[in-house]
Design brief:
Length: 297
């Protein structure tokens, strides 16, 4: 396992608990040492990772998408041998996964793109895994997938790239679900007729038999119990890129996705505390109708 952050570190623990031998590496020596303390074999360079593993190797890359993943895979490709497998468990673009699979295949290496969902709760409940790659590559890593996932929680989705494609759509759907919950709770929070509504209790209620019950609702309940007004949080929402890629894939396929698209736009909007758009709207209302505007003070 390369990358021992919030996901990778817990995945190492789950694999160890399942009886696997794991070589663990992170740029942080402290993180590697912590994995050693849990029973992993520590490595302190990519070269050492490869040296400490028996062939055919299976190396899981769990680092941020983009340049960190690209440079890690390129380095590993020069160190590994025929029939070794590289697994990319990060949120990489599926186009990159198709390219990487072809490049590695030309070297005699195998590649699996493993879309991974579960977050920090994966250690306890398991990770939902969407794995793309050849039949041979999937068979090589399936024992690890089976240990990491809950029962019926992993799937060979198809050829290389399909795992990250399915995970991309998964995250696009997640955008829409999160937005709907957030808007619904905002309606209750802002209403003046019933100002004493207990939002945490309502979230708990909806978890029991309601058609809108879900794990996301459980997480909403946890957050509301800890901070009922969410006063400790800034209204700024990042996106990891997969919502954007889902919208682009929908456009490419001529499929309308208004909910996912608007959910993405709402995240972008959250980053403009003093939005030019809103100032322009106010200015236009003032210009055509003389409506009052609020000046910056």
């Amino acid at each position: 396992m390369i990358g021992l952050g919030r996901m990778g570190g817990n995945m190492v623990t789950r694999l160890l608990q399942g009886g696997h031998q794991v070589v663990a590496y992170d740029r942080s020596a402290e993180a590697t040492k912590a994995a050693e303390d849990r029973g992993a074999v520590g490595a302190y360079s990519l070269e050492e990772v490869v040296q400490k593993m028996n062939r055919p190797r299976a190396i899981w890359v769990m680092v941020p998408a983009g340049d960190p993943t690209e440079s890690t895979i390129q380095t590993l490709a020069k160190l590994m041998a025929a029939d070794d497998t590289i697994i990319d468990g990060g949120n990489s673009n599926w186009h990159d996964s198709i390219r990487r699979a072809a490049e590695l295949e030309a070297r005699g290496l195998r590649f699996v793109d493993a879309g991974t969902s579960g977050g920090i709760w994966g250690l306890q409940v398991g990770y939902c895994l969407m794995a793309g790659g050849s039949d041979q590559a999937f068979a090589h890593v399936e024992p690890a997938l089976k240990t990491l996932a809950p029962e019926n929680g992993y799937l060979h989705t198809g050829p290389a790239g399909s795992g990250h494609f399915v995970k991309m759509v998964h995250n696009g759907i997640e955008y829409g679900l999160m937005q709907a919950y957030a808007e619904g709770f905002e309606v209750m929070h802002a209403n003046k007729t019933f100002p004493s509504l207990d939002l945490a209790a309502i979230a708990d209620l909806w978890r029991e038999g309601s058609v809108v019950r879900s794990w996301l609702l459980e997480l909403a309940s946890n957050a509301l119990h800890q901070d009922p007004g969410l006063e400790s949080l800034a209204p700024y929402v990042e996106d990891s890129g997969e919502g954007r890629w889902t919208v682009q894939a929908a456009i490419d396929a001529d499929v309308p996705t208004p909910i996912i698209t608007l959910s993405l736009y709402e995240r972008l909007r959250s980053r403009s505390a003093n939005s030019f758009t809103d100032r322009m709207l106010a200015a236009l209302r003032n210009e055509f109708g003389g409506h009052a505007v609020k000046k910056k003070g």
